[in-house]
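ok so for the tutorial part 2 we go from a plain amino acid sequence to predicted structure tokens. step 1 is just haveing the sequence, like this:
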Amino acid sequence: MMAHVDLCSGIGGFALGFQWAGLSKPVLFCDIEPWSRKVLAKHWPDVPIAEDVKELANDPDGNVPDCDILTAGYPCQPFSHAGKRLGHEDDRHIWPYLLQIVAQKRPAWCCFENVYGHVSMGLDQVLLDLEAEGYASRTFIVPACGVDAPHLRYRVFVVAKDVADTNSPRCEEQRRSQSAQEKHQAPQCGSGWLLEPSVGRVAHGIPKRVDRLRGLGNAIVPQLAMKIGQAIKQCEAEL
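step 2 — the prediction. this is what the tokens look like for a chain of 239 residues:
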């Protein structure tokens, strides 16, 4: 099992999906939301949880354990069509801090997630930064209904492999194959998920309702993370 550092963890979608895939186990979480940290602590009581990516980036060697894979669903507000789209001028833009950690820790794999609006704002810079650090990357746009969830929820995933000191044509071929599979995946909702109840404007008797809604809104679909984890595991087996 790979050692997994999960930054901007939310409620642990990457960690859960990668565990389902048999790929990795988390060695560090980080999330700025107290409620999310409580959820992480409940489900992974033995894994340390940091509060601020910026603080971790001040001293990655001292603050971040060595890892084989690093993930982050970094804040979407700088790029989302639902916001002002201030990009790097938004104080929630933390990609440069994540890049500092990646450059210092050199995980073999990275996986990042963000909203569809990232494609037209900020994504090119992320890919250029990863390439400058010696990572080959692939970008996937996958909806939640691609794994039969009963909603669209298009999200951008960037999967990157450290190739600075390796020559891995078979891994590149695997990424091409996975990309083709994702592009031809039919965006239709299917079976395997319980039907979601209708949501009214007012809810009574639901504890921590606002925190729950924020947590779910920020979360990734773990079934998608599992698919990515399975692809990484297969690639590792073929190297």
